[in-house]
Amino acid sequence: MLNNDIFSHIILGIISFFSNFISALSGGGAGLIQLPALLFLGLPFSKALATHKVASVALGLGASIPHLKRRSLRINYALLILISGIPGVLLGAYTSSILPSSFSTTLLGILTLFLSFYSIKQKNLGSSNQKLSINKLRILIGSFGLFIIGFLNGYLSSGTGLFVTIWMIILFDLSFSVAVAYTLIFVGIFWNGIGAFSLGMSGNIIWDYIPVLILGSLLGGYLGAKFSIIKGTKFIKVVFELVSFSVGISLLVKGFL
C-alpha cells in the first residue's frame, strides 16, 4: 500500500510538471492532462476538480516570476481581467452546482477547436505587441467577453485560459507572449484561486496530493514561462494551436460521454 502510494505521488508529480510546463507555453490547457490523471487515481470528479484548481494556482505563481521580471504588463489590462472576469467565475461556480454541464462542455470543445483553426489561418496573429489604448468601446466589449469566459471558468473544468489568451490578442493586439503572461498570472492565480476556494469550502480538496501537485505546477510553470520567453511568439503560437486542438477534442469526447 505504501509503495503504491509513493508511486502514485511520483507519477502525479511528473504529470503535473509536464502539463503545467505546456500550459505555461500556451496560456492554458493544464487540465487536459492533470485532471484526467486525478480521475484515473479514483477520485470523484468534484474532488479531482477542486484538487486540480488548487494546483493550477501554483502554476500561475511559478509562471509569474519570469514574466513579471520583463515588466511588460499594464495595470489597466490586469484590472480589466480581474474586475470583469471574477464575477463571471463566481456565477459560474454557483451555476455548476445546479445545472448539467454536458451541453456546455461540448460547446466549449467546438469553440476551442475553432480557436486552433482560427490561429492557424491567421498567420500574423499575435505577432505584434502594440498595447492599444483602452477606450470605452473596448472596455465594454472586453468586459463582456471576459465575463463570459470567467463564467465558463467557474462552470467547467478546463480550457478557458486559452480563450483569455486569444481574447487579449484580438482585442488589444498583444503578442502571444504577453497575452499568455496575463492569462497565467491573472487567470491562473486569481480566477482559479477563487474557484479553488469555493470548491474547497465544500471539503472536496484531497490535501494528500497537494504538495506534489504544487511542486510540479511551480516548477513546470516557471520553466515553461522561461522557455516561452526564450523561444518567442512564433513558437508559442504553434504550441497554442496544438494545445487548443487537443483540449477541444478532449472536451468534445467528454461532452458526448
Automatic annotation (TrEMBL):
Q: Where does this one sit in the cell?
A: Cell membrane; Membrane
Q: What is this protein called?
A: Probable membrane transporter protein
Annotated membrane-spanning segments are 6-25, 75-95, 101-118, 139-156, 162-194, 206-223, 235-253
Q: How does it sit in the membrane?
A: Multi-pass membrane protein
Going by the UniProt record, its keywords in alphabetical order are: Cell membrane, Membrane, Transmembrane, Transmembrane helix
InterPro entries registered for this protein in UniProt: TM_pro_TauE-like (IPR002781), TSUP/Inactive_protease-like (IPR051598)
> Where would you say this protein principally sits, based on its record?
membrane
What Pfam families does this protein's entry cite?
TauE (PF01925)
Keyword Transferase recorded: no
